[in-house]
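Worked problem 6 (solution included).
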Amino acid sequence: MKPVWVVDDDRSIRWVFEKALTREGIPFKTFAQAGDALAELDAGAPQVLVSDIRMPGTSGLELLQKVKERHPNLPVIVMTAYSDLESAVAAFQGGAFEYLPKPFDVDQAVDLIRRALDESLREEQEEETEQGSPEILGQAQSMQEVFRAIGRLSQSSATVLITGESGTGKELVARALHRHSPRAAKSFIAINTAAMPKDLLESELFGHERGAFTGAQTMRRGRFEQAESGTLFLDEIGDMPADLQTRLLRVLSDGTFYRVGGHQPIRANVRVIAATHQDLEARVKEGLFREDLYHRLNVIRLRLPNLRERREDIPLLARYFLAKSARDLGVEPKRLSDAAMAYLCGQSFPGNVRQIENICHWLTVMAPTQVIEVGDLPPELRDETPVAESDWLAALAREVDRMLARGESAIMDTLSKRFERTLIGKALAHTGGRRIEAANLLGIGRNTITRKVAELGLQDKDAPPE
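Solution. The predicted structure is:
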C-alpha cells in the first residue's frame, strides 16, 4: 500500500496525524506546503491525500484541482474550518472524497482515512482487473509453455488438438488461439459434441434443408457455415458418434460438406480446434475413435497441465477469482489467510481451475468475514481424503516419469517447492496459521518458515506481517 499524504502548514496538525497514523500502522508522509506535495507527485501518487484548504502559496483547492487532473481516482480529503463551508462545497464540486471539519476528533479522522483507503484500493483492484485481466492465468513453467505455443501459432491456421482434464481451460486456450490468429475478425463458434443427441448434433454441425426431417420447416445453417472464415471449436471430440466422425473427416479432408437433406456441396473455410479430456490414442485402439480422424485432428497438440502440476499458480488463481467474484456481485473482495491459502495449495483439485473458481465464488457469498480462514472453506474441501501414505512415493515416481517424458528441466527445484509448499501448508493448517508452532512441528526456525511462506506464494501480499 502506498502512503497517505498529509498537507498542512500547521505543524501541530501534522504532528497529530503523524502520531495517529503511526499508531494505526498506516504509512504516511507529511508536507508543510502544497507545492512540495505537487513536486513529489512526479515520483508517484499517494494512496490517499489529506489537505488543508487555506495555506500560504498554493491553496488546498488548487492542489485538489491539479491532483485530480493527473490522478482522477485518487481520494482527496480536505480539511476546513466551519467558516469555510463554502470552500468545502467547492471542494466537493472539484471531486473531493470527503471533508474533515476543524477542529476534528482524531478517531473520526482515522476512520475517514480508512474509508478513503478502502475506496482507493478497491478502485485500483477494479482497474487492474478491467485493464490487465489476462486471458489465461499462470506463472508455472508448464503454463509458460502453453503461452509460448499460442504465440508460435499466432499466424497459423493449422488444426489444433487441445488435451487436458476437465476444468483446465481448454476453451479459454481455443479462444486465445482464435483471438491471436489471422481469423480473429471473424466468428469463433463453439459446440460441445458430447452435450446433444447424434441426430441433433449432425444438424447443429452441418445445418439442414427445409423438409429434411419432421419439424424442419425452414433451411438452417449449421456451425460450419456460421464459422465461415473463422474458427470452429469442437469440445469433447472424443465422444463424437462414429458416423459423425466420418462426416467430420470428410470436411477436414476435402473442405466440403452437405447440409442434412442437401445435395449441393458447401465449401468450408474454417479452422478447426478440437478438445478432449479423454485419451484419444486409447479410444483409437478400442475402436471408439477413427484413427484417420485422429491424425487429421492431431496436427498440433497442446496439452494443458492439471492444477496438481502447477500448484504454484493456486495463490494467483485464488486471488484473481476472489476479486472477480466480488466485482461480479458488487461486494468487498475477501482474502485468504496464510493458513487458508496454504491449505488450498495442498489440495488435489480434481476439477482444476474451474473448481477453484467455484470455490472462490462460494467463499465470496458464504464466508462470514473478510479474511477467510481454514474453517471458512467449503466442508467438502476440508473433508477431502488425503493420498494414502503408502502411495506417496509411488505417486512421486510417476510424476518424475511424466516430467522426464515431457522434457522438463529443473525438476528437482520444481518438486522441492511443491514438497515444501505441502509440508508448510499442512503444518500451518494444523496450527491455525500460527507460524512459530508450525515451525516447531516441522523442525525449522521461525525466520525460515516466514521466508518460505513468502517464497512459495503462500502469503497474501496485503497481509500484515506476523
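Discussion: DSSP finds 20 helices and 14 strands in the chain.
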